[in-house]
Amino acid sequence: MPKDKDYYKILGVEKNATKEEIKKAYKKLAKQYHPDVSKEDGSTEKFKEINEAASVLGDDEKRAQYDQFGTTYDKFAGHGFDFSDFGFDSGGFESFDFGDIFDRFFGTGFGFGPRTSKRRARRGADLRYDMEITLEDAAFGAVKHISIPKLETCDNCDGSGAESKSDIVNCPDCGGKGSVTRTQRTPFGMFATTTTCSKCRGEGKYIRNECPKCDGTGVVKETKKLEIKIPEGAEEGTNLRVAGGGEAGEKGASPGDLYIVLHMKEHDVFERDGDNINVKVNVPFTIAALGGEIEVPTLDGKAKLRIPAGTQSNTTFRMQGKGIPFLHDGGRGDENVEVVVSVPKKLTKRQAQLLKEFEKESKNKGFLGKMFE
Q1: Which of 23, 87, 134, 326 has its CB surrounded by the most CB atoms within 10 Å?
Q2: What is the pTM of this model?
């Protein structure tokens, strides 16, 4: 990059201009000379110069090198400036965010500015466990015990990965920074490269002697026994989160979570419908005709249900509050009882005679008369 190229002059700012002043000047000029807007001759080259200047003056380190040496070495110097790298030739002026591009000159997008060098220890992975429960478990709640194979924090080193605390030292190669910077002088000026330290892998710490139980990983494979409480009102797909029940994190990082996904087993008697339950019950012909009381199954045991005279088959009766408890709001659903009238397959002579008399008295050759003729 030629030494006589004055970036301050290109942006129209003083040498002691603040970053905010540089940003304001850049945005104004970039909008003026953007190729999609400006029809002036040379606007494309001018636009390149503006971005080139902003990429240097918007970064403290590069600005200091420029002020001292009159140049700085990067992808823009000596190799031409390709502003298509920023997406200018693909989105058009209306979709172009000048503030965002300027912010990227500070190191967030292209690595020009200060970086966080040390690598963070990763949080443990989340786990999922699918559990089948009965309708009774869902209705009244239950306590289940499960065993989960997962990575646990090593109890021998408390997750540090070291044989002892004294074995954890600052990395000798990077001095605890997690990265290594190498500077060399080139025809274009001082050229600095920063890379992740290969010895400590960016952690800044180095283990001289690894824990023999976990081989320096800080975690071991174990089967963990857990007690899971099923809430009243649980339904198909209910998701229970056990905080910290997932796998252990790296080097003391927080563990993941365990998610229990509930699935309902089919019931022999009841059919669930949201917070209600449905059941079919056979009713003797005589009770359906004359009325009476029958015993029906419920989740709480047996209960009495009054059947009015003349009840037809497939009539449904609602037993309020005999269903599934609401998961969050309190209260309880209902039980819907569908009665199916049972017609006797065999009759004694006396029973048949009485029914014929009934039919005769009703003077209606209907179903019963035809049935016993």
Answers
A1: 23
A2: 0.56
